[in-house]
Amino acid sequence: MKKSKKMFAALLLAFVLLMAGAFALYTGFSGALTPDRLTVEEGEGKLDRGEDGQDQDPELVMAPDFTVYDVDGNEVRLSDYVGKPIVLNFWASWCGPCQREMPDFNEKYLELGDEIHFLMVNMTDGSRETVEVAAEFVEEKGYAFPVFYDTAANAAMTYGVYSLPATYFIDAEGRGVAWASGTIDGETLQKGIDMIRPEE
Fold first, then answer.
1. What local confidence, expressed as pLDDT, does residue 177 receive?
2. Are 41 and 179 in contact (CB under 8 A)?
3. pLDDT confidence of residue 131
4. Interatomic CA distance for residues 148 and 78, integer angstroms
5. What pLDDT was estimated at residue 39?
6. For residues 111 and 90, what is the distance between their CA atoms, to the nearest angstrom?
């Protein structure tokens, strides 16, 4: 009897420590994943002030190219869209956080789709997520933005996407400017767009 009580106490202590550790990790990392945060890409250069005291653009890195497919199976490359700013988003229909941000992306696409390319890349693994399932989801929701399917995982591997959603903001020259991991709200989406839109 004493042995089982000791075992129960040890298991209870281990559980409490596990929960405390999980809480500490959650609170420690959650600040970095808030919806109003964008990580600015700076490459090797840093944003600094030139001799005239004005901010100088950081030395931005070219966004890596990749190949995905449209709903008809036609090959599409990121480089096909260079020339206008690009909002690149990785998503899946089963992903709750993706679903929460998609109405904002659709709204911005309807507003700015003539001046900015929106590339909504579906993480199509062929089992949990198929082209048919994803296309049906988009149609059911009435989204107008263009959707592409990463059936060969080329885009995901190129960008090292391991959690969804993930959003990248690429300027008209094809340089990565900023990115966000996790759900972003409409205000943060607009901030990213403002960073890649040409100044008027």
1. 94
2. yes
3. 97
4. 11
5. 83
6. 20
Cβ contact 81:155 at 8 Å: no
Beta strands in 85-187 (DSSP E): 86-91, 117-122, 147-149, 166-170, 176-181
Q: 2: which strand partners?
A: none
Bridge partners for 91 per DSSP: 122
pLDDT of 122 reads: 98
Of 29 and 8, more confident: 8
Tokens 């709750």 correspond to what residue?
96
Instruction: Label the pairing between strands 117-122 and 147-149.
Output: parallel
CA angle 101, 107, 109 (to 5 degrees): 100
Position 35 scores a pLDDT of: 41
Q: Which long-range contacts (CB under 8 A, 24 or more apart) does 2-6 make?
A: none
Give 121's strand partners: 90, 148
